[in-house]
Amino acid sequence: MLLVALVLVGGSGYAVWTNLDSLTGLTSPLASKDFPGPGGDQVDVEIPQGATGQAMGEALYEAGVVASVSAFSTAFEANPDSVLIRPGTRTMLEEMSAEDAVALLVKNELVDLQVTIPEGYTVEQVVERAVQVTGLPAEDFEAALADPEKIGLPKQAKGKAEGWLYPDAYMAKPDATAAGLLSQMVGRTVRMLQEKNVDRSDWQTVLTKASLVEREGLHAEDKPKIARAIENRLADDMALQIDASVAYGAGKPGTELTRADTNNAKNRYNTYQHTGLPPGPIANPGEVAVDAVLNPAPGDWKFWVTVNLDTGETKFAEGFDEHQQYVAELREWEKANQ
Predict the structure, then answer these.
(1) CA dihedral in degrees (180, 186, 189, 194; nearest 10)?
(2) Based on C-alpha coordinates, what's the Rg of the chain?
(3) Residue 307 three-state SS
(4) In 3D, which of 150, 115, 136, 116 has the Cα closest to residue 178?
(5) Structural domain spans, the chain
(6) Distance (Å, rounded) from C-alpha 164 to C-alpha 244?
(7) Global pTM value
(8) Superfamily grouping for domain 25-106
(9) Model confidence band, residue 183 (pLDDT cutoffs 50, 70, 90)
(10) pLDDT grade, residue 255 (50/70/90)?
(11) Exposed/middle/buried for residue 82 (C-beta within 10 Å: 0-12, 13-18, 19+)
């Protein structure tokens, strides 16, 4: 009798859900319902990096592509090629059958994606952004970077792409490759230097200086002044003492630098311990920073410091005593904004 009662309760529960569907139009995404297909209007759906079949089904269900997550999951597991589905934005159809939805995803026909690289990104950050947007494996980018000729790096780069990946927006087509994207970035940098009539022998030096200016200056109007201050220090054989360069060589954020870091002479990018420019660029500079290096502002500044870390306000000084006054201003700001 107990068994019969349980069966009846289960049956009544199913009946209640079924009747609720018919009366309200509500549908459980977990119910094994399926559209007959072939589908209607187009709709773009984003498949996240590392998404499981369940997560894909939920995204498609929310977009109205499949009738239920359960039906999609079943079709996903039944298709042996489903493991090849790459992340990215796909153009799907509303009300597709689950089987057809999986088959379309397997084709990996991605919508063109825009990879935007901000000024001042390092190579590591560029790769992270490209992997995130395109879904291409990080290993592909690492392999391309290890083959300088494949991505068009000039000999002046000495095999390192840092500084040569031009910050801009790039359209990644469905058949885009890591090497292809990096080649576009390098090509843009080369064209920019050529258009500005920079002598080929000066390319690496200009990019190195521009990368320092890029990481030190937040506002465009400050960059020509920073470029001039760098030139003035180099002319007097003064250490540049640029924290961004030390941090790059130490592999840590500039906000985490310690006295030990600035005292570490083993760090070739330590511009406290080594005079002159660092061995190469510390980031990928934009055109404004390059222009600042090619046309630095006239002045006798040798010091600069950002006195307000929120606004990026930077003050310049010719002498050390004046500079110390601005440093004290920064310390006051830091105390007030802890």
Answers:
(1) -100
(2) 28
(3) strand
(4) 136
(5) 25-106, 113-195, 206-336
(6) 18
(7) 0.69
(8) Endolytic murein transglycosylase (3.30.1490.480)
(9) very high
(10) confident
(11) middle
